[in-house]
Amino acid sequence: MSSGIAITDILVTYAGSMAPPGYHRLLADEVGVDLNKDTGGPPTYLWLQEQAGAPPISEVDIVYDDEPTPEGWTKVEKNLARGTGATTFLVFKRGAADDDSKPAAAGEGGDEEEKGADDSAPAQRPLDLLQVLFDDQTADEGFEVLPKPIMRDAEHPVRLCFKRVSEEALA
Questions:
Q1: Bridge partners of 8?
Q2: What is the pTM of this model?
Q3: What is the 3-state secondary structure (H, E, C) of 92-156?
């Protein structure tokens, strides 16, 4: 459920480790969402902070292996695919979105055109919710799915998607 306050920070923890006070674990059906479900890696969880007055996160993406962190973005320094033989990191940007610095999708030369010309206005709204999709699940209405899966070559893809703060909540 949307809190109406934008996401201001994201952390990753493994197994039973907890995030600092002020963060809440990304849940599905009241259970923490394990990004490494069925991979052999340790349980891996995303934690979100929503702090009034803090700079909001406006973009989120995935980078693999030695891909550089785009300029102006923050890399969460914990491997989302720990224990699986892969290396995947979450990156995010605070403030207004800037598609010129957005990481290109894996195996693609930057396909921002596919997202449509209407994205310039919504892309400036901060993130409100994150959701994890397993296998062939579809995103809830209003969510945008990242083009890169968390596990690049996984038999069962895990994707991250997000929903932006509504225009009404920003007014």
A1: none
A2: 0.81
A3: EEECCCCHHHCCCCCCCCCCHHHHCHHHHCHHHCCEEEEEEEECCCCCCCCCEECCCCCCCCCCC
